[in-house]
UniProtKB/TrEMBL annotation, chain A:
Keyword tags: 4Fe-4S, Electron transport, Iron, Iron-sulfur, Membrane, Metal-binding, Repeat, Transmembrane, Transmembrane helix, Transport
PROSITE patterns per the UniProt record, alphabetical: 4FE4S_FER_1, 4FE4S_FER_2
PANTHER family: FERREDOXIN-TYPE PROTEIN NAPH (PTHR30176)
Boundaries of every 4Fe-4S ferredoxin-type domain copy: 287-317
Entry's transmembrane regions: 64-80, 115-133, 176-194, 206-228
SUPFAM superfamilies linked to this entry: 4Fe-4S ferredoxins
InterPro entries named in the record: 4Fe4S_Fe-S-bd (IPR017896), 4Fe4S_Fe_S_CS (IPR017900), Electron_Trans/Redox (IPR051684), NapH_MauN (IPR011886)
Protein name: NapH/MauN family ferredoxin-type protein
Domain of life: Bacteria
TrEMBL record, chain B:
Segments forming domain 4Fe-4S ferredoxin-type: 65-95, 102-136, 256-284
One family name in Pfam for this protein: Fer4_4
Molecular-function annotations in GO: iron-sulfur cluster binding; metal ion binding
Residue stretches spanning the membrane: 27-49
Keyword DNA damage among record annotations: no
Species of origin: Sedimenticola selenatireducens
Name of this chain's protein: 4Fe-4S dicluster domain-containing protein
Amino acid sequence: MSYIIESFRQLYGSDPRRPAKTDISPEAQKVHFDKKQKPYTKEEIAEVEALHAQGSKKWRNRRWATLIFINVLFLVSYYFDIQLLEGALTASRFMGFHMADLNSALQVTLAFKHMVLNLVIGTVTVIVIWLLLGGRTFCSWVCPYHLLSEWAESLHLFLAKKGIVKDRTFNRKVRSVFYLLFALLALGTGYTVFETISVTGIVSRALIYGPGVAMIWVGLVLLFEVFYSRRAWCRYVCPIGITYGVVGTISPLRVKFLVKDCHHEGECRKVCLVPHVLDVTIKGRAAHTEVDVSADCTRCGMCIDICPTNSLRFEIKGLGKHL
Amino acid sequence: MSDQAKSKKPVKRHLSPKQIEQNRREFLRSSVLAVGVMGISLVGLLPVVQGKSLALRPPGAIKTPSDEQDFLSSCIKCGQCVQVCPVNAIKLAELDTGAGVGVPFIDARDQACDFSCDGLQCVLACPTGALTHDLDYPADTRMGFAKVAEPRKCLAIQGKGFKGQARGPDYPGLLRYDDVDRWNPIPVADYPYDLALCDLCVRQCPIEIRITQCAAADAAGDKNKDRVAQRQGNECPPKHAIALEPIVSDDGIKRMKPVILEGCVGCGVCEMICPPDPPAIVIDIMQDADTIGGVS
Protein backbone atom coordinates (compact mmCIF):
# COMPACT_ATOMS: atom_id res chain seq x y z
CA MET A 1 0.00 0.00 0.00
CA SER A 2 2.76 2.42 0.92
CA TYR A 3 4.35 1.61 -2.43
CA ILE A 4 1.18 2.68 -4.22
CA ILE A 5 0.86 5.88 -2.19
CA GLU A 6 4.52 6.77 -2.69
CA SER A 7 4.18 6.03 -6.44
CA PHE A 8 1.20 8.34 -6.72
CA ARG A 9 3.06 11.08 -4.83
CA GLN A 10 5.97 10.84 -7.25
CA LEU A 11 3.74 10.65 -10.31
CA TYR A 12 2.00 13.76 -9.04
CA GLY A 13 5.33 15.52 -8.80
CA SER A 14 6.12 15.53 -5.11
CA ASP A 15 9.64 14.88 -3.93
CA PRO A 16 10.15 11.32 -2.75
CA ARG A 17 9.48 10.95 0.95
CA ARG A 18 12.56 10.81 3.13
CA PRO A 19 11.98 8.05 5.62
CA ALA A 20 11.95 9.16 9.25
CA LYS A 21 14.47 7.35 11.37
CA THR A 22 11.73 5.34 13.00
CA ASP A 23 10.54 4.12 9.60
CA ILE A 24 13.87 2.55 8.75
CA SER A 25 13.99 -1.16 9.42
CA PRO A 26 16.63 -2.44 11.87
CA GLU A 27 18.38 -4.32 9.06
CA ALA A 28 18.57 -1.22 6.90
CA GLN A 29 19.68 0.85 9.87
CA LYS A 30 22.48 -1.62 10.41
CA VAL A 31 23.61 -1.26 6.79
CA HIS A 32 23.53 2.53 7.01
CA PHE A 33 25.35 2.39 10.35
CA ASP A 34 28.02 0.04 9.04
CA LYS A 35 28.63 2.25 6.03
CA LYS A 36 28.98 5.24 8.33
CA GLN A 37 31.37 3.44 10.65
CA LYS A 38 33.51 2.06 7.87
CA PRO A 39 33.02 4.35 4.89
CA TYR A 40 34.13 3.22 1.46
CA THR A 41 37.67 4.39 0.86
CA LYS A 42 38.40 6.77 -1.98
CA GLU A 43 40.11 3.93 -3.79
CA GLU A 44 37.06 1.70 -3.47
CA ILE A 45 34.79 4.39 -4.84
CA ALA A 46 37.24 5.20 -7.63
CA GLU A 47 37.34 1.51 -8.47
CA VAL A 48 33.56 1.39 -8.78
CA GLU A 49 33.41 4.63 -10.70
CA ALA A 50 35.94 3.30 -13.18
CA LEU A 51 33.44 0.56 -13.95
CA HIS A 52 30.77 3.04 -15.01
CA ALA A 53 32.53 3.74 -18.27
CA GLN A 54 32.28 0.08 -19.22
CA GLY A 55 28.69 -0.22 -18.05
CA SER A 56 26.81 -2.88 -19.92
CA LYS A 57 24.38 -1.97 -22.69
CA LYS A 58 22.37 -5.14 -22.20
CA TRP A 59 19.04 -3.64 -21.23
CA ARG A 60 19.44 -0.65 -23.51
CA ASN A 61 20.02 -2.92 -26.49
CA ARG A 62 17.11 -5.16 -25.61
CA ARG A 63 14.92 -2.13 -25.14
CA TRP A 64 15.91 -0.45 -28.38
CA ALA A 65 15.44 -3.73 -30.23
CA THR A 66 11.95 -4.13 -28.74
CA LEU A 67 10.97 -0.54 -29.41
CA ILE A 68 12.18 -0.62 -32.98
CA PHE A 69 10.69 -4.07 -33.57
CA ILE A 70 7.22 -3.02 -32.41
CA ASN A 71 7.21 0.21 -34.39
CA VAL A 72 8.60 -1.41 -37.51
CA LEU A 73 6.04 -4.19 -37.15
CA PHE A 74 3.31 -1.58 -37.61
CA LEU A 75 5.01 -0.35 -40.76
CA VAL A 76 5.80 -3.80 -42.17
CA SER A 77 2.31 -5.04 -41.41
CA TYR A 78 0.79 -2.17 -43.38
CA TYR A 79 3.36 -2.04 -46.15
CA PHE A 80 3.15 -5.74 -46.97
CA ASP A 81 -0.51 -5.97 -45.94
CA ILE A 82 0.09 -8.94 -43.64
CA GLN A 83 -2.43 -7.68 -41.06
CA LEU A 84 -0.25 -8.62 -38.11
CA LEU A 85 -0.35 -5.31 -36.30
CA GLU A 86 -2.75 -2.87 -37.91
CA GLY A 87 -3.28 0.76 -36.99
CA ALA A 88 -0.93 3.00 -35.05
CA LEU A 89 0.11 3.26 -31.43
CA THR A 90 -3.04 5.18 -30.52
CA ALA A 91 -5.16 2.17 -31.42
CA SER A 92 -4.35 -1.03 -33.21
CA ARG A 93 -5.23 -4.61 -33.82
CA PHE A 94 -2.68 -7.29 -33.06
CA MET A 95 -3.64 -10.36 -35.07
CA GLY A 96 -7.22 -9.16 -34.91
CA PHE A 97 -7.28 -8.35 -31.19
CA HIS A 98 -8.14 -4.77 -30.37
CA MET A 99 -5.62 -2.68 -28.49
CA ALA A 100 -5.97 0.97 -27.53
CA ASP A 101 -3.46 3.36 -26.09
CA LEU A 102 -4.76 4.11 -22.62
CA ASN A 103 -4.26 7.85 -22.78
CA SER A 104 -5.76 8.16 -26.26
CA ALA A 105 -8.69 6.02 -25.17
CA LEU A 106 -9.13 8.24 -22.12
CA GLN A 107 -9.01 11.44 -24.18
CA VAL A 108 -11.47 10.08 -26.74
CA THR A 109 -13.83 8.88 -24.03
CA LEU A 110 -13.72 12.19 -22.17
CA ALA A 111 -14.33 14.12 -25.37
CA PHE A 112 -16.94 11.80 -26.87
CA LYS A 113 -18.49 10.72 -23.54
CA HIS A 114 -19.22 7.30 -24.88
CA MET A 115 -17.22 4.10 -25.28
CA VAL A 116 -18.03 1.49 -27.89
CA LEU A 117 -17.37 -2.15 -27.08
CA ASN A 118 -14.30 -2.43 -29.29
CA LEU A 119 -12.66 0.43 -27.43
CA VAL A 120 -13.52 -1.14 -24.08
CA ILE A 121 -11.97 -4.42 -25.21
CA GLY A 122 -8.87 -2.66 -26.53
CA THR A 123 -8.44 -0.60 -23.39
CA VAL A 124 -8.88 -3.52 -21.00
CA THR A 125 -6.44 -5.64 -23.03
CA VAL A 126 -3.81 -2.94 -22.86
CA ILE A 127 -4.40 -2.32 -19.15
CA VAL A 128 -3.81 -6.03 -18.50
CA ILE A 129 -0.66 -6.04 -20.62
CA TRP A 130 0.89 -3.11 -18.78
CA LEU A 131 -0.32 -4.34 -15.41
CA LEU A 132 1.87 -7.34 -16.05
CA LEU A 133 4.73 -5.47 -17.65
CA GLY A 134 5.07 -2.41 -15.47
CA GLY A 135 2.98 0.52 -16.68
CA ARG A 136 5.47 3.16 -17.77
CA THR A 137 7.38 0.36 -19.44
CA PHE A 138 5.34 1.61 -22.39
CA CYS A 139 7.31 4.85 -22.37
CA SER A 140 10.79 3.45 -22.70
CA TRP A 141 10.08 0.16 -24.45
CA VAL A 142 7.41 1.14 -26.98
CA CYS A 143 6.99 4.91 -27.43
CA PRO A 144 8.83 5.92 -30.62
CA TYR A 145 9.28 9.48 -29.40
CA HIS A 146 11.23 8.12 -26.45
CA LEU A 147 13.92 6.82 -28.76
CA LEU A 148 14.21 10.12 -30.65
CA SER A 149 14.30 11.88 -27.32
CA GLU A 150 17.02 9.56 -26.07
CA TRP A 151 19.19 10.50 -29.03
CA ALA A 152 18.42 14.17 -28.45
CA GLU A 153 19.39 13.62 -24.84
CA SER A 154 22.79 12.23 -25.86
CA LEU A 155 23.33 15.36 -27.91
CA HIS A 156 22.18 17.53 -25.02
CA LEU A 157 24.56 15.80 -22.61
CA PHE A 158 27.42 16.12 -25.08
CA LEU A 159 26.76 19.84 -25.54
CA ALA A 160 26.24 20.32 -21.81
CA LYS A 161 29.61 18.71 -21.13
CA LYS A 162 31.19 21.24 -23.47
CA GLY A 163 29.36 23.99 -21.63
CA ILE A 164 27.36 25.01 -24.70
CA VAL A 165 23.94 24.21 -23.28
CA LYS A 166 22.61 23.77 -19.80
CA ASP A 167 19.70 21.84 -18.40
CA ARG A 168 16.94 24.00 -16.95
CA THR A 169 14.59 22.07 -14.76
CA PHE A 170 10.88 22.61 -14.35
CA ASN A 171 8.68 21.87 -11.42
CA ARG A 172 7.59 18.28 -11.96
CA LYS A 173 4.11 19.06 -10.71
CA VAL A 174 3.50 20.90 -13.99
CA ARG A 175 2.96 17.50 -15.63
CA SER A 176 0.02 16.87 -13.32
CA VAL A 177 -1.32 20.31 -14.16
CA PHE A 178 -1.13 19.35 -17.85
CA TYR A 179 -2.83 16.06 -17.12
CA LEU A 180 -5.72 17.76 -15.39
CA LEU A 181 -6.03 20.54 -17.97
CA PHE A 182 -5.99 18.18 -20.95
CA ALA A 183 -8.61 15.99 -19.29
CA LEU A 184 -10.80 19.00 -18.53
CA LEU A 185 -10.30 20.39 -22.03
CA ALA A 186 -11.33 17.10 -23.63
CA LEU A 187 -14.37 17.00 -21.38
CA GLY A 188 -15.25 20.65 -21.85
CA THR A 189 -14.54 21.29 -25.51
CA GLY A 190 -15.42 17.84 -26.80
CA TYR A 191 -12.20 17.66 -28.78
CA THR A 192 -9.15 15.51 -28.09
CA VAL A 193 -6.96 18.55 -27.55
CA PHE A 194 -3.87 16.69 -26.38
CA GLU A 195 -3.84 14.38 -29.40
CA THR A 196 -3.15 17.41 -31.57
CA ILE A 197 0.25 17.92 -29.99
CA SER A 198 0.96 14.36 -28.83
CA VAL A 199 4.41 13.62 -30.18
CA THR A 200 3.86 9.90 -29.56
CA GLY A 201 0.85 9.79 -31.85
CA ILE A 202 2.46 12.03 -34.44
CA VAL A 203 5.69 10.03 -34.65
CA SER A 204 3.84 6.73 -34.72
CA ARG A 205 1.59 7.87 -37.57
CA ALA A 206 4.52 9.44 -39.41
CA LEU A 207 6.36 6.13 -39.29
CA ILE A 208 3.42 4.19 -40.67
CA TYR A 209 1.66 6.62 -43.01
CA GLY A 210 4.58 8.84 -43.95
CA PRO A 211 5.82 12.01 -42.30
CA GLY A 212 4.02 15.30 -42.68
CA VAL A 213 3.99 18.86 -41.40
CA ALA A 214 3.25 17.59 -37.89
CA MET A 215 6.82 16.29 -37.67
CA ILE A 216 7.95 19.94 -37.50
CA TRP A 217 6.30 20.15 -34.11
CA VAL A 218 8.16 17.02 -33.03
CA GLY A 219 11.38 18.61 -34.27
CA LEU A 220 10.73 21.74 -32.25
CA VAL A 221 10.12 19.72 -29.11
CA LEU A 222 13.36 17.83 -29.71
CA LEU A 223 15.27 21.09 -30.22
CA PHE A 224 13.81 22.37 -26.96
CA GLU A 225 15.11 19.27 -25.25
CA VAL A 226 18.55 19.55 -26.78
CA PHE A 227 19.10 23.24 -26.13
CA TYR A 228 16.96 24.13 -23.17
CA SER A 229 15.80 21.36 -20.93
CA ARG A 230 16.81 17.71 -20.86
CA ARG A 231 14.00 15.28 -21.71
CA ALA A 232 11.49 18.05 -21.07
CA TRP A 233 8.53 16.44 -22.85
CA CYS A 234 8.68 13.10 -21.05
CA ARG A 235 9.60 14.64 -17.71
CA TYR A 236 7.30 17.62 -17.50
CA VAL A 237 4.57 17.45 -20.12
CA CYS A 238 3.43 14.09 -21.41
CA PRO A 239 0.20 12.89 -19.76
CA ILE A 240 0.68 9.46 -21.32
CA GLY A 241 3.39 8.84 -18.74
CA ILE A 242 1.02 9.52 -15.87
CA THR A 243 -1.71 7.29 -17.31
CA TYR A 244 0.67 4.35 -17.67
CA GLY A 245 2.33 5.24 -14.37
CA VAL A 246 -0.99 4.81 -12.58
CA VAL A 247 -1.36 1.33 -14.10
CA GLY A 248 2.20 0.61 -13.02
CA THR A 249 1.46 1.27 -9.36
CA ILE A 250 -0.05 -2.18 -9.10
CA SER A 251 2.30 -3.93 -11.48
CA PRO A 252 4.59 -6.63 -10.14
CA LEU A 253 7.39 -5.76 -12.55
CA ARG A 254 9.61 -3.22 -10.87
CA VAL A 255 13.19 -2.16 -10.42
CA LYS A 256 14.47 -3.09 -7.00
CA PHE A 257 17.24 -1.35 -5.07
CA LEU A 258 19.46 -3.40 -2.73
CA VAL A 259 21.27 -1.05 -0.41
CA LYS A 260 23.96 -3.41 0.89
CA ASP A 261 26.61 -3.16 -1.83
CA CYS A 262 25.68 0.28 -3.13
CA HIS A 263 28.56 2.74 -3.07
CA HIS A 264 26.13 5.67 -3.50
CA GLU A 265 28.15 7.16 -6.35
CA GLY A 266 24.89 8.43 -7.86
CA GLU A 267 25.67 7.47 -11.44
CA CYS A 268 22.27 5.78 -11.78
CA ARG A 269 20.54 9.08 -11.06
CA LYS A 270 22.61 10.77 -13.75
CA VAL A 271 21.47 8.42 -16.52
CA CYS A 272 17.86 8.20 -15.36
CA LEU A 273 14.95 9.80 -17.23
CA VAL A 274 13.12 10.26 -13.94
CA PRO A 275 15.95 10.58 -11.41
CA HIS A 276 13.70 11.36 -8.47
CA VAL A 277 12.61 7.73 -8.40
CA LEU A 278 16.20 6.82 -7.57
CA ASP A 279 16.49 9.21 -4.61
CA VAL A 280 16.23 6.03 -2.59
CA THR A 281 19.82 5.30 -3.65
CA ILE A 282 21.09 8.40 -1.83
CA LYS A 283 23.10 7.50 1.23
CA GLY A 284 20.84 6.80 4.21
CA ARG A 285 17.56 7.04 2.29
CA ALA A 286 16.69 3.35 1.96
CA ALA A 287 14.10 2.40 4.55
CA HIS A 288 14.68 -1.28 3.95
CA THR A 289 17.55 -3.37 2.67
CA GLU A 290 15.52 -3.87 -0.49
CA VAL A 291 13.34 -1.08 -1.83
CA ASP A 292 11.11 -1.07 -4.92
CA VAL A 293 11.59 1.91 -7.18
CA SER A 294 8.31 3.85 -7.59
CA ALA A 295 5.90 3.46 -10.49
CA ASP A 296 7.08 6.70 -12.12
CA CYS A 297 10.06 4.56 -13.22
CA THR A 298 9.91 3.60 -16.90
CA ARG A 299 11.73 0.30 -16.32
CA CYS A 300 14.24 1.28 -19.00
CA GLY A 301 17.07 -0.51 -17.25
CA MET A 302 19.68 2.24 -17.74
CA CYS A 303 20.41 2.30 -14.00
CA ILE A 304 20.75 -1.46 -14.00
CA ASP A 305 23.17 -1.31 -16.91
CA ILE A 306 25.31 1.38 -15.30
CA CYS A 307 25.38 -0.04 -11.76
CA PRO A 308 28.70 -1.77 -11.12
CA THR A 309 27.64 -3.35 -7.83
CA ASN A 310 24.46 -5.01 -9.03
CA SER A 311 22.48 -3.01 -6.49
CA LEU A 312 19.67 -2.35 -8.96
CA ARG A 313 17.80 -5.22 -10.53
CA PHE A 314 14.57 -6.02 -12.29
CA GLU A 315 12.22 -8.04 -10.17
CA ILE A 316 8.83 -9.56 -10.54
CA LYS A 317 7.12 -9.02 -7.22
CA GLY A 318 5.77 -12.24 -5.84
CA LEU A 319 7.88 -14.46 -8.03
CA GLY A 320 10.95 -13.64 -5.98
CA LYS A 321 12.96 -13.93 -9.13
CA HIS A 322 15.49 -11.49 -10.44
CA LEU A 323 15.73 -11.15 -14.16
CA MET B 1 3.79 12.43 12.07
CA SER B 2 5.08 15.02 14.52
CA ASP B 3 8.57 13.72 13.80
CA GLN B 4 8.13 14.40 10.14
CA ALA B 5 6.66 17.80 10.73
CA LYS B 6 9.67 18.65 12.84
CA SER B 7 12.17 17.25 10.36
CA LYS B 8 10.54 18.99 7.42
CA LYS B 9 10.05 22.50 8.70
CA PRO B 10 13.64 23.39 9.44
CA VAL B 11 14.65 22.25 5.97
CA LYS B 12 12.27 24.74 4.44
CA ARG B 13 13.37 27.53 6.70
CA HIS B 14 16.99 27.02 5.88
CA LEU B 15 16.70 27.56 2.15
CA SER B 16 19.50 29.81 1.11
CA PRO B 17 18.66 32.97 -0.83
CA LYS B 18 20.17 31.29 -3.87
CA GLN B 19 17.86 28.28 -3.53
CA ILE B 20 14.88 30.55 -3.06
CA GLU B 21 15.84 32.39 -6.23
CA GLN B 22 16.26 29.07 -8.06
CA ASN B 23 12.86 27.87 -6.88
CA ARG B 24 11.30 31.15 -7.93
CA ARG B 25 12.81 30.85 -11.39
CA GLU B 26 11.78 27.23 -11.71
CA PHE B 27 8.23 28.15 -10.80
CA LEU B 28 8.21 30.96 -13.36
CA ARG B 29 9.68 28.69 -16.04
CA SER B 30 7.10 26.02 -15.25
CA SER B 31 4.28 28.54 -15.50
CA VAL B 32 5.55 29.76 -18.85
CA LEU B 33 5.84 26.15 -20.04
CA ALA B 34 2.28 25.43 -18.91
CA VAL B 35 0.88 28.51 -20.60
CA GLY B 36 2.94 27.89 -23.75
CA VAL B 37 2.00 24.25 -24.23
CA MET B 38 -1.64 24.84 -23.42
CA GLY B 39 -1.66 27.82 -25.76
CA ILE B 40 -0.23 25.80 -28.62
CA SER B 41 -2.71 23.00 -28.08
CA LEU B 42 -5.58 25.50 -27.98
CA VAL B 43 -4.42 27.06 -31.25
CA GLY B 44 -5.09 23.59 -32.63
CA LEU B 45 -8.78 24.11 -31.84
CA LEU B 46 -9.03 27.14 -34.12
CA PRO B 47 -9.28 25.31 -37.47
CA VAL B 48 -11.97 22.98 -36.16
CA VAL B 49 -13.98 25.72 -34.50
CA GLN B 50 -13.78 27.86 -37.64
CA GLY B 51 -14.92 24.88 -39.69
CA LYS B 52 -11.72 24.87 -41.73
CA SER B 53 -11.15 21.22 -41.01
CA LEU B 54 -14.38 20.11 -42.70
CA ALA B 55 -13.70 17.47 -45.33
CA LEU B 56 -15.19 14.53 -47.15
CA ARG B 57 -15.05 11.76 -44.55
CA PRO B 58 -15.09 7.98 -44.91
CA PRO B 59 -18.44 6.13 -44.92
CA GLY B 60 -20.21 6.06 -41.58
CA ALA B 61 -18.49 9.10 -40.07
CA ILE B 62 -20.71 10.32 -37.25
CA LYS B 63 -21.30 13.86 -38.39
CA THR B 64 -23.82 16.12 -39.95
CA PRO B 65 -22.71 18.12 -42.98
CA SER B 66 -21.73 21.15 -40.93
CA ASP B 67 -20.90 19.57 -37.58
CA GLU B 68 -18.02 17.14 -37.28
CA GLN B 69 -17.52 17.48 -33.54
CA ASP B 70 -18.62 13.94 -32.66
CA PHE B 71 -16.50 12.50 -35.43
CA LEU B 72 -13.39 14.46 -34.48
CA SER B 73 -13.73 13.66 -30.79
CA SER B 74 -14.44 9.97 -31.17
CA CYS B 75 -11.70 9.31 -33.73
CA ILE B 76 -8.61 7.91 -32.03
CA LYS B 77 -6.39 8.81 -35.02
CA CYS B 78 -5.01 5.34 -35.61
CA GLY B 79 -5.54 5.01 -39.35
CA GLN B 80 -6.93 1.48 -39.32
CA CYS B 81 -9.52 2.65 -41.83
CA VAL B 82 -6.66 3.80 -44.07
CA GLN B 83 -5.08 0.37 -43.94
CA VAL B 84 -8.09 -1.67 -44.97
CA CYS B 85 -9.25 0.46 -47.91
CA PRO B 86 -8.63 -1.49 -51.14
CA VAL B 87 -8.41 1.66 -53.27
CA ASN B 88 -6.39 3.72 -50.74
CA ALA B 89 -9.04 6.41 -50.78
CA ILE B 90 -8.58 7.36 -47.13
CA LYS B 91 -5.82 9.69 -45.99
CA LEU B 92 -5.01 11.15 -42.59
CA ALA B 93 -5.32 14.90 -42.13
CA GLU B 94 -2.29 17.08 -41.59
CA LEU B 95 -1.47 19.46 -38.76
CA ASP B 96 -3.01 22.39 -40.65
CA THR B 97 -6.38 21.01 -39.57
CA GLY B 98 -5.36 21.51 -35.94
CA ALA B 99 -7.27 19.16 -33.68
CA GLY B 100 -8.30 17.37 -36.87
CA VAL B 101 -4.75 16.03 -37.28
CA GLY B 102 -4.63 12.30 -37.88
CA VAL B 103 -8.36 12.14 -38.67
CA PRO B 104 -9.25 10.32 -41.92
CA PHE B 105 -10.56 12.15 -44.97
CA ILE B 106 -11.05 11.45 -48.64
CA ASP B 107 -9.87 13.59 -51.53
CA ALA B 108 -12.40 12.38 -54.05
CA ARG B 109 -10.69 13.94 -57.06
CA ASP B 110 -7.51 11.96 -56.25
CA GLN B 111 -9.19 8.76 -55.24
CA ALA B 112 -12.81 8.37 -54.33
CA CYS B 113 -14.43 5.62 -52.31
CA ASP B 114 -15.99 3.25 -54.84
CA PHE B 115 -17.12 0.72 -52.21
CA SER B 116 -15.00 -1.95 -53.88
CA CYS B 117 -14.51 -3.54 -50.47
CA ASP B 118 -18.28 -4.31 -50.60
CA GLY B 119 -18.45 -4.68 -46.83
CA LEU B 120 -17.54 -1.17 -45.67
CA GLN B 121 -14.21 -2.37 -44.32
CA CYS B 122 -13.26 1.03 -42.88
CA VAL B 123 -16.38 1.00 -40.74
CA LEU B 124 -15.59 -2.50 -39.52
CA ALA B 125 -11.99 -1.52 -38.78
CA CYS B 126 -12.86 1.55 -36.71
CA PRO B 127 -12.14 0.77 -33.04
CA THR B 128 -14.02 3.72 -31.55
CA GLY B 129 -17.26 3.98 -33.50
CA ALA B 130 -16.17 7.23 -35.15
CA LEU B 131 -17.28 5.37 -38.27
CA THR B 132 -20.54 4.00 -36.97
CA HIS B 133 -21.43 0.35 -37.11
CA ASP B 134 -25.06 1.38 -37.58
CA LEU B 135 -24.33 1.28 -41.26
CA ASP B 136 -25.11 -1.88 -43.23
CA TYR B 137 -24.80 -1.01 -46.88
CA PRO B 138 -23.00 1.52 -49.05
CA ALA B 139 -26.39 3.02 -49.87
CA ASP B 140 -26.85 3.92 -46.18
CA THR B 141 -23.83 6.23 -46.13
CA ARG B 142 -24.16 10.01 -46.09
CA MET B 143 -20.79 11.43 -47.03
CA GLY B 144 -22.00 14.38 -49.05
CA PHE B 145 -24.08 15.07 -52.12
CA ALA B 146 -22.97 15.44 -55.70
CA LYS B 147 -23.65 18.65 -57.56
CA VAL B 148 -22.94 19.85 -61.08
CA ALA B 149 -20.68 22.74 -60.19
CA GLU B 150 -19.41 23.58 -63.67
CA PRO B 151 -22.23 22.75 -66.10
CA ARG B 152 -20.36 24.33 -69.00
CA LYS B 153 -17.51 21.88 -68.54
CA CYS B 154 -19.82 18.86 -68.63
CA LEU B 155 -19.24 16.85 -71.81
CA ALA B 156 -22.78 15.47 -71.80
CA ILE B 157 -24.26 18.94 -71.57
CA GLN B 158 -22.02 19.95 -74.46
CA GLY B 159 -23.30 16.93 -76.33
CA LYS B 160 -19.80 15.43 -76.55
CA GLY B 161 -18.66 11.87 -76.30
CA PHE B 162 -15.53 10.66 -74.60
CA LYS B 163 -12.72 8.51 -75.93
CA GLY B 164 -9.61 7.41 -74.05
CA GLN B 165 -8.45 7.29 -70.46
CA ALA B 166 -10.83 9.24 -68.28
CA ARG B 167 -8.10 11.01 -66.32
CA GLY B 168 -5.15 10.57 -68.64
CA PRO B 169 -2.38 8.00 -68.75
CA ASP B 170 -0.59 9.12 -65.56
CA TYR B 171 -3.57 9.13 -63.24
CA PRO B 172 -2.91 6.61 -60.44
CA GLY B 173 -6.49 6.28 -59.16
CA LEU B 174 -8.21 2.90 -58.96
CA LEU B 175 -11.72 1.69 -59.62
CA ARG B 176 -13.26 -1.71 -59.72
CA TYR B 177 -14.58 -2.83 -63.09
CA ASP B 178 -16.76 -5.91 -62.79
CA ASP B 179 -16.17 -6.91 -66.39
CA VAL B 180 -12.40 -6.95 -65.83
CA ASP B 181 -12.11 -8.24 -62.27
CA ARG B 182 -15.01 -8.67 -59.88
CA TRP B 183 -12.78 -8.46 -56.80
CA ASN B 184 -9.76 -6.29 -57.44
CA PRO B 185 -9.72 -2.63 -58.40
CA ILE B 186 -7.52 -1.67 -61.36
CA PRO B 187 -6.03 1.66 -62.45
CA VAL B 188 -8.51 3.90 -64.25
CA ALA B 189 -5.73 4.52 -66.76
CA ASP B 190 -5.91 0.83 -67.76
CA TYR B 191 -9.56 1.12 -68.73
CA PRO B 192 -10.00 3.38 -71.76
CA TYR B 193 -13.52 4.33 -72.75
CA ASP B 194 -15.17 4.97 -76.08
CA LEU B 195 -18.49 6.72 -75.48
CA ALA B 196 -20.75 8.37 -78.02
CA LEU B 197 -22.04 10.65 -75.29
CA CYS B 198 -20.10 10.97 -72.05
CA ASP B 199 -21.98 9.29 -69.21
CA LEU B 200 -19.01 8.47 -66.98
CA CYS B 201 -20.56 9.90 -63.82
CA VAL B 202 -23.61 7.69 -64.21
CA ARG B 203 -21.77 4.68 -65.63
CA GLN B 204 -19.24 4.54 -62.76
CA CYS B 205 -21.58 5.50 -59.93
CA PRO B 206 -21.28 2.64 -57.38
CA ILE B 207 -24.95 3.01 -56.46
CA GLU B 208 -26.04 2.76 -60.10
CA ILE B 209 -23.75 -0.24 -60.59
CA ARG B 210 -25.35 -1.87 -57.56
CA ILE B 211 -28.82 -1.32 -59.03
CA THR B 212 -27.71 -3.09 -62.20
CA GLN B 213 -26.34 -5.99 -60.15
CA CYS B 214 -29.59 -6.28 -58.25
CA ALA B 215 -31.58 -6.31 -61.46
CA ALA B 216 -29.30 -9.03 -62.83
CA ALA B 217 -29.70 -11.09 -59.66
CA ASP B 218 -33.48 -10.73 -59.81
CA ALA B 219 -33.46 -11.71 -63.46
CA ALA B 220 -31.41 -14.80 -62.66
CA GLY B 221 -34.64 -16.33 -61.49
CA ASP B 222 -35.98 -18.79 -58.97
CA LYS B 223 -32.79 -20.10 -57.39
CA ASN B 224 -32.02 -16.67 -55.97
CA LYS B 225 -35.56 -15.90 -54.97
CA ASP B 226 -35.18 -16.74 -51.28
CA ARG B 227 -32.12 -14.55 -51.02
CA VAL B 228 -33.92 -11.76 -52.77
CA ALA B 229 -36.73 -12.05 -50.26
CA GLN B 230 -34.31 -11.83 -47.35
CA ARG B 231 -32.77 -8.64 -48.52
CA GLN B 232 -33.50 -5.79 -46.21
CA GLY B 233 -34.34 -2.18 -46.60
CA ASN B 234 -33.20 -0.40 -49.67
CA GLU B 235 -30.04 -2.43 -50.08
CA CYS B 236 -31.05 -4.19 -53.26
CA PRO B 237 -31.80 -2.38 -55.29
CA PRO B 238 -30.89 0.95 -53.68
CA LYS B 239 -32.51 4.17 -54.83
CA HIS B 240 -31.13 5.80 -57.93
CA ALA B 241 -28.33 8.27 -57.30
CA ILE B 242 -27.73 9.93 -60.64
CA ALA B 243 -29.25 9.92 -64.10
CA LEU B 244 -28.81 11.68 -67.41
CA GLU B 245 -31.78 13.67 -68.59
CA PRO B 246 -32.15 14.91 -72.14
CA ILE B 247 -31.95 18.63 -72.73
CA VAL B 248 -34.24 20.13 -75.33
CA SER B 249 -32.10 22.27 -77.57
CA ASP B 250 -32.63 24.02 -80.89
CA ASP B 251 -29.26 23.22 -82.48
CA GLY B 252 -30.12 19.59 -83.17
CA ILE B 253 -27.19 18.29 -81.04
CA LYS B 254 -28.19 15.55 -78.61
CA ARG B 255 -27.40 16.84 -75.16
CA MET B 256 -27.94 15.32 -71.73
CA LYS B 257 -27.45 16.70 -68.24
CA PRO B 258 -26.60 14.79 -65.10
CA VAL B 259 -29.28 15.00 -62.43
CA ILE B 260 -28.47 13.98 -58.87
CA LEU B 261 -31.14 11.86 -57.21
CA GLU B 262 -31.96 11.06 -53.60
CA GLY B 263 -29.92 7.85 -53.65
CA CYS B 264 -26.64 9.79 -53.91
CA VAL B 265 -24.35 9.02 -50.95
CA GLY B 266 -21.58 11.45 -51.85
CA CYS B 267 -18.87 8.83 -52.39
CA GLY B 268 -17.13 11.02 -54.94
CA VAL B 269 -16.61 8.57 -57.82
CA CYS B 270 -18.35 10.99 -60.23
CA GLU B 271 -15.97 13.76 -59.19
CA MET B 272 -13.05 11.38 -59.59
CA ILE B 273 -13.94 10.07 -63.03
CA CYS B 274 -15.13 13.35 -64.63
CA PRO B 275 -12.63 14.02 -67.47
CA PRO B 276 -12.46 17.84 -67.53
CA ASP B 277 -10.27 19.67 -65.06
CA PRO B 278 -11.62 21.06 -62.82
CA PRO B 279 -14.43 18.52 -62.90
CA ALA B 280 -17.95 19.47 -63.91
CA ILE B 281 -19.37 17.45 -61.03
CA VAL B 282 -18.14 17.61 -57.45
CA ILE B 283 -19.21 16.48 -54.00
CA ASP B 284 -20.77 19.12 -51.80
CA ILE B 285 -19.81 18.14 -48.25
CA MET B 286 -22.24 20.68 -46.82
CA GLN B 287 -25.18 18.61 -48.06
CA ASP B 288 -26.31 15.02 -47.94
CA ALA B 289 -29.36 13.09 -49.11
CA ASP B 290 -31.09 13.67 -45.78
CA THR B 291 -30.52 17.41 -45.55
CA ILE B 292 -31.37 17.97 -49.18
CA GLY B 293 -34.57 15.96 -48.92
CA GLY B 294 -34.62 14.27 -52.25
CA VAL B 295 -33.96 15.51 -55.75
CA SER B 296 -31.63 18.42 -56.17
